[in-house]
């Protein structure tokens, strides 16, 4: 089709029909998106720097469609039906930096068309049908930094084609059918910082699979079929974020991360991990979160020597017999620690979340600088009067489902959340001023809530409910006591959400402390016949 | 199907309603809530709006915010174009280029010092 005549000097650059154009100095931004266009408009001004043709019905590009656009920096062709691109379609676009071809029907990389784009930095080819990546695909792209090939049909890593991209910094090959990573797959990608490989079928990873990735900081191997720990990561000295959750890995070996001293986050949940090497998590001074759920074969608490920045440790349903005394010194920054089902018949020097253990006794000087402590589901019969005295900053304490008959109050003045249900012998009510900052309380018996104004509050509120046609049973269960601890196995506790929720509840006609079980007609506050047993 | 949900929708919508725009998208598109006055309208895009990056998953494609100092990004921790006043260096936005690199005020990037 005939190209538009050159505009007269000084005349405003022409804007294709239906499109929206904006002048930016001497150059033009042209938006022709979502117009149902069947092909690229012809009357494009040579001064076009930004051209958006996305979300139209373009299935073919005319060979000369963009030939005069030497100022073009960004070209958006995403969301069309392009299945192939003529070799000269992009020739002459020497200023092009961003090319978006995602959400089209390409089945192979249009190598010929990409041959001569010396300044291209970002190339989007995601959400196509690409299964073929010719070796010369990226030959002319020496400035390419960002490459999207996710959501295609690749079965192999395009090793030879990738070897031509020395400037590449970020790449995603996620959502393909890649089943293995051969040795030296990314050999020349020394500038790569981010590599996403999630949602593939990777089972095998060569021992030298990641050689050459000297600057890699983020590696995402989540949702694959890895059978073994990805030992090839040992060469990634600058790695900061690592994810391999949702794989089939059964063991984390000794010195697993010895080559990755800069690691800050490691996500590996939802693996059938049974064994964890004692030294696996040593010398990771930047690591702040470590969660080891369900590692049933762990017999000893991992040695965390040199992993001094850890703030959150979750170690549930493990088989640990003893918590070493040194662990307090090793983890000076730990705020939240969750240790479900771990330690039997022993005292320990330090913990904060020990659900589902067989802990029998808690001695003095056991806890240090904690904000949350979860000791639910143990066999605790006795707590030393000074056990909590050092815990000035403790705000959340869960002692539910133990065998307590008494609770020492020393050190618990800052509590906002306290859970004690499931301790049948703990029958004494608490004085209202025992916990001045308390907001959520769960106790074994309803009458223990009466000290917190729940009785009157309950009846007034219940009348209120009846008046509004809302019976207590209709009350949204979510407004009952909330699950309390981050990292607790069955609770996605979000501090911010909880605070908002509590503020909301405060504004309503509710007692300031949310105490459960709520007393009621059949769980009265007063003694019946001089005996509290009758009112249980 | 709910009476207000229609099938005959525009662009990338799979289902939509007169009041809320797109309710769901055709496969492989990103669902984004755009605010127009007090209303929120669902739109389906082939790429996330400026200031957001997209992540594709088998069942949904999501947009999430870049960092505050970043205009466009590949992931939250990897910026591709910084906001004005910041220099881009390997995916990070810096107020000052590190030693050994010099600030290019034209491209707003940190580049190797050419001797």
UniProtKB/TrEMBL annotation, chain B:
Residues 11-110 form the R-spondin Fu-CRD domain. Coiled coil: none annotated. Transmembrane segments: none annotated. It is found in: Secreted. Activator of the canonical Wnt signaling pathway by acting as a ligand for LGR4-6 receptors, which acts as a key regulator of angiogenesis. Upon binding to LGR4-6 (LGR4, LGR5 or LGR6), LGR4-6 associate with phosphorylated LRP6 and frizzled receptors that are activated by extracellular Wnt receptors, triggering the canonical Wnt signaling pathway to increase expression of target genes. Also regulates the canonical Wnt/beta-catenin-dependent pathway and non-canonical Wnt signaling by acting as an inhibitor of ZNRF3, an important regulator of the Wnt signaling pathway. Interacts with the extracellular domain of FZD8 and LRP6. It however does not form a ternary complex with FZD8 and LRP6. Interacts with WNT1. Binds heparin. Interacts with LGR4, LGR5 and LGR6. Belongs to the R-spondin family. This is R-spondin-3. It comes from Coturnix japonica (Japanese quail). The chain holds residues 33 to 147 of 275 of the full protein.
